[in-house]
Amino acid sequence: MILVGRFQSPFVRRAAVTLKHYGLNFEHKALSSMTDKDAVKTFNPLGRVPAFVTDEGDTIVDSAVILDHLDELAGPSKSLTPPKGKERRKVLHAVAVAVGACEKAVGGLYEKNRRPAEKVHQPWLDQLDGQAKDGLDALEAMNPSPFLCGSKLTQADVTAVCVFDFMRGQLPHLAPAGRYPKLEALSKRCNEMPAFAETVPKG
């Protein structure tokens, strides 16, 4: 199995954390969609990461689809996403909130860093930042104790921590120290686990 993308991306990192949590061996190709476009396109015609190659040689793109495949490999008893019912809906809801917050944060990052300063539309940037903060507020309100959806680690925690760590590192104005004490505690708790510790972005 091959995972394509750098751990600086929370979407790549959540796939890597899941692989390591399940004890699945994989090759990591730390390619950037910005600086390694041609190489990334050999795995994903859209030039996006993550991309994933199965043991059978099939390529999967989009982190949600990759996670679905990994859950299938792990089986229902080990899956980080419950197989059915209210528990499944609760986890998927938290995942969707975290992913949505991250997409808005990344949109704001692109608006600010990829446009000439005179072309940045501040009201749009403010809206994106506001939506990202709203997402973090919602995750904080889920009151992880010890985890977002109860006593066990789920994909909700994997995704939320990867997103929260990304924002703290790349967009600290969205997650200043002390604003989200429960998410900070969750991040600390999870990052002590090998699957998280081994995927902390470097550089």
Report what the structure shows:
By secondary structure, this protein is mainly α. The protein has 2 domains: 2-74, Glutaredoxin, CATH 3.40.30.10; 85-197, Glutathione S-transferase Yfyf (Class Pi), Chain A, domain 2. Helix content is 54%, strand content 6%. The protein has helices at residues 10-21, 37-41, 63-74, 85-113, 122-141, 155-170, 181-191, 194-197; strands at 2-4, 27-29, 51-53, 59-61. A 4-stranded mixed β-sheet has the order 2-1-3-4, covered by helices on one side. Strand 3 and strand 4 (59-61) form a beta hairpin. Helix 1 (10-21) packs antiparallel against helix 6 (155-170), helix 4 (85-113) packs antiparallel against helix 5 (122-141) and helix 4 runs parallel beside helix 6 (155-170). The two termini are 25 Å apart.
